[in-house]
From TrEMBL:
Its main location: nucleus. The keyword Plastid does not apply. This is Plant bHLH transcription factor ACT-like domain-containing protein. The keyword Cell membrane does not apply. Residues 68-112 form the Plant bHLH transcription factor ACT-like domain. It is found in: Nucleus. GO terms for molecular function: DNA-binding transcription factor activity; sequence-specific DNA binding. It comes from the Eukaryota. GO terms for cellular component: nucleus.
Length: 112
């Protein structure tokens, strides 16, 4: 019969091995595995911050303050004109993404 402590130890060892594999650690000792896991978590947090910062910058470009939008009905669809007094970098991309989010197909897009 196998003792409870042996089962607990075996289960804990399996969990450390799982943690080791998930964090790509090559450490052998449990303490080193935990240190590697901590470093791995810090790197993940930095990546998340970087993505959040990039998303915030993109939102800046996608939030023009003075666009004028006109919509004309055509025989087959619509012509939508977006005019802005500011030269916003990424304006066309933002407008196209907005149409895509609405489920609209853009047939032609021009910038002038």
């Amino acid at each position: 019969m196998v003792s409870r402590e042996h089962n607990k130890g075996s289960s804990l060892h399996e969990k450390f091995q799982l943690l080791r594999s998930v964090t790509n650690s090559h450490a052998e000792s449990e303490t080193s595995i935990i240190v590697d896991a901590s470093k791995y978590i810090k790197k993940l947090k930095q990546k998340v911050e970087k993505i959040n910062n990039a998303t915030t910058s993109e939102q800046y470009f996608c939030d023009p303050t003075d666009p004028m939008v006109t919509v004309e009905t055509l025989e087959k669809g619509f012509m939508i004109k977006v005019t802005s007094g500011k030269n916003e970098a990424g304006m066309l991309v933002c407008v196209l993404e907005a149409f895509e989010d609405l489920g609209l197909d853009v047939v032609e897009a021009r910038v002038s």
